[in-house]
Amino acid sequence: MKSLSRIRRLGIVGGTFNPIHLGHLRSAEEVYEDFNLERIIFIVSAVPPHKVSTGIVDAAHRYEMVRRAVKDNPRFDASNLEIKREGKSYTVDTLSYFRERLGDDADIYFILGLDAFSEIGTWRDYGRLFGLAHFVVTDRPTGRVMEPEGFFPPEIAGLFSRDRAGGLVHESGKRLFYHDITAMDISATHIRGLVGEGKSIRYLVPPAVYRYIQQRGLYC
Ligand code: ATP
Fold first, then answer.
1. Which among 129, 140, 190, 201 is the best mutation to test ligand 1's pocket, defined by most ligand atoms within 8 Å of the CB?
2. Cα 190 to ligand 1 centre (Å)
3. Which residue's CA lies nearest to atom 13 of ligand 1?
4. CA 141 / ligand 1 centre spacing (Å)
5. Cα gap 128→130, rounded to integer Å
6. Domains in the chain, start-ordered, CATH in brackets?
7. For 70-122, what is each residue's pLDDT tens digit?
8. What is the pTM of this model?
């Protein structure tokens, strides 16, 4: 496998992954192909700044589930970078790290769902994020039409202009893409709820994750 510093087109997906599910994996698989990426790294956040920390299983479990979920896919990697870092996880620190490792000429794509993107104005140093990486906002199945005009978080609207083809460009030259993915209406919240009710989560998570949750009695 290519070493990280030699990768020129890297995708990054950050999340709590409590637990990772097929919605996360399928959307990354599609972005990998549609954006011609060389690798996608799933980064497990330690203490998610935006989530109430109740019901979040230990980071070591969440990382282990991600590791097992991506093990058989050579396109994907799992990272515990944010877990090893002290304190809260901030995307701006993670993107700065990868920008430094890969150099200025590499294309880094930060991939996130529309729900997460709509709250980006609350993220630390959100203005800096768009100078560090391209952003790919995927349409999570909500039934809403993905129109930048309708779903552009007001805090960042002024940071982008349109190129001749109508694409959204930041002053750094990095781009913001709205990208449709196959709708999989799965959330980790729903999965935790099912486990709590003693119901099956088979076919919502990869088999290895299903077994891991069962064997350790997570989310019961
Ligand atoms: P929770 O239900 O606990 O809030 P989640 O299922 O939304 O969790 P996260 O770990 O918070 O999962 O999400 C990480 C990233 O994956 C976010 O950018 C989120 O928008 C995206 N994502 C979550 N679910 C899906 C899905 N079904 N399809 C595509 N992307 C998703």
1. 140
2. 11
3. 15
4. 11
5. 6
6. 9-187 (3.40.50.620)
7. 999 999 999 999 999 878 889 999 999 999 999 999 999 999 998 899 899 99
8. 0.94
